[in-house]
Amino acid sequence: MRFIQPVLVLILASTGLAQKNAAIPRLPDGHPNLQGVWEHPYVPDMSRDGKDQKGAGELPFNDTGADNFKNYDVSKFDYTGHCLPFGLLRSINVGGYPIQIMQNEDYLAFLFEQNTWFNVVYMDGRPHPKNLDPTWFGHSIGKWSGDTLVIDTVGFNGKTRLDTIGHPHSDQMHVIQRLTPVDADHITYEVTVDDPKYYTKPWKNTRTFWRLPKGQELIEYSCEENNRDLTQGHI
Asked: Rounded to whole angstroms, how far apart are CA atoms 127 and 152?
């Protein structure tokens, strides 16, 4: 019996692992199927980490970054109030507007309800182009590391902010996002920001996405040039 017991334990452990993994929807190629409409927490301040966004910390600014943030005054100009693109991370940080993920073997796309923006992730093994035209959302390529989707994004134009309170980034920013499904209805999201122009070292922020019930879909959203929230002083 002393030889059978370890084998039995191994079988039971393997069965439990298989049942846990079976809860994650998968594509025909075996990778997790992340398709669906996902809600995500509002993260107005990326110095706060984790699910409850408590424990305000300090980001690792260099002198240039600290000076930029200190002198940022949203009352003088808020680019979002002028309907300009939020940028990749601020679009993910904004609350109350879900994100839909569309996915196949070659592409994955984030469809943002906020202003009907999108971000395409190339999953076909291509590298970043050598000569990138800077854009609001950058250029994203993805690959799988086990059940974790790793998304590498560069090529930002540096015209946006990371979050509502205005933490800065430059056109040198390099973003790594990691999405790991924990079951059919939850994804652990981790983002690493590396921007040597404003920060002394890379830093991370984490949170959890949760799936919206069936029947809850994205709705149309449009921000127009003559935004009354801006002209009437609401923003």
From this structure: 10
Longest dimension (CA), the chain: 80
pLDDT tens digits, 101-138: 999 999 999 999 999 999 999 999 999 999 999 999 99
Burial of residue 147 (number of CB atoms within 10 Å: 0-12, 13-18, 19+): middle
- Name the residue with tokens 């801006």: 230
Share of the chain above pLDDT 70, in %: 83
Confidence of residue 12 (pLDDT cuts 50, 70, 90): very low
> What sign has the CA pseudo-torsion 132, 129, 88, 175?
negative
